[in-house]
Design goal:
Layout lengths: L1 H28 L17 H23 L20 H9 L3 H18 L3 H10 L6 H5 L5 H28 L2 H19 L8 H26 L7 H8 L4
């Protein structure tokens, strides 16, 4: 009986000592929350890490967006970002259709989108510079701001400077796809008719229209990419993105 009691005491001491050692090691490694639970605790994020993660997400977004918009039908084949006939010139469109210029109207609308697709080939460095130079004070506010929060912040902070940088690329694209060759006959027919009727002549700024719509289209696509990173772990292509955006679901 005494021998059994001694054996029981020895086993208890060994188990107790082992548990204390394991418990101490776990605490030092920070492997669980000190509330009696064994649930892993995610490493703390710093604001600098969050900001870096947001900028990386936007960079991934713009890379992917340029890839899909700077190809044939990147704009024309995407109803979400397709450039319509300029709203200020809808009267021109209707008059041209009334005059039987359906083919010219269609060619103009197609070439309008070709100009945006061509311009987007030059968009990547412009947008990357904007992202790199973007100043973010409170990364956590944007990270926790919900779908599209980072893209909205980028758009609010950089749209005007992006327009200035992007405009020459659009002008070059318009020239390359010969957009004005399809536009001038339409506008000339319309303005000739207005001369006869006394109506107001129209000549909207195609460069500004394409610039604004192309940038808007890119932002729409970047937001889709941002939201994908927020929701889908597979879209988080780096350790930093996993750490930052994974914190939203931990």
């Amino acid at each position: 009986m005494k021998r059994n009691l001694k054996l029981f005491i020895c086993i208890s001491l060994v188990l107790s000592t082992s548990c204390d050692v394991l418990d101490s090691a776990a605490r030092q490694a920070g492997n669980y929350i000190n509330d009696g639970s064994s649930t892993p605790e995610a490493p703390a994020l710093t604001n600098n890490e969050v900001v870096a993660g947001l900028k990386e997400a936007l960079t991934v977004g713009i890379n992917n967006s340029v890839d899909v918009t700077s190809v044939t039908d990147g704009f024309l084949g995407n109803p979400q970002i397709k450039l319509p006939f300029p709203p200020d010139a809808l009267k021109v469109r209707q008059k041209a259709l009334d005059l039987g210029l359906n083919g010219q109207v269609e060619r103009f609308e197609t070439t309008l989108n070709r100009a945006a697709e061509e311009a987007c080939k030059e968009a990547l460095p412009i947008f990357k510079n904007a992202i790199t130079g973007m100043s973010i004070q409170d990364g956590f506010a944007i990270l926790n701001g919900g779908d599209g929060a980072a893209t909205k912040y980028l758009k609010d902070q950089t749209t005007e400077s992006l327009k200035q940088a992007f405009a020459p690329k659009v002008a070059s694209a318009i020239s390359k796809v010969k957009l004005t060759e399809y536009w001038n006959p339409l506008i000339n027919k319309y303005n000739t008719a207005m001369t006869l009727t006394g109506g107001d002549k129209i000549n909207p700024d195609l460069e500004l229209f394409v610039t604004e719509r192309a940038i808007d289209g890119l932002f729409i696509m970047v937001e889709k990419e941002e939201n994908k990173i927020r929701l889908d772990p597979i879209a988080r292509v780096s350790e930093l993105l996993n750490k930052v955006f994974g914190s939203l679901t931990n």
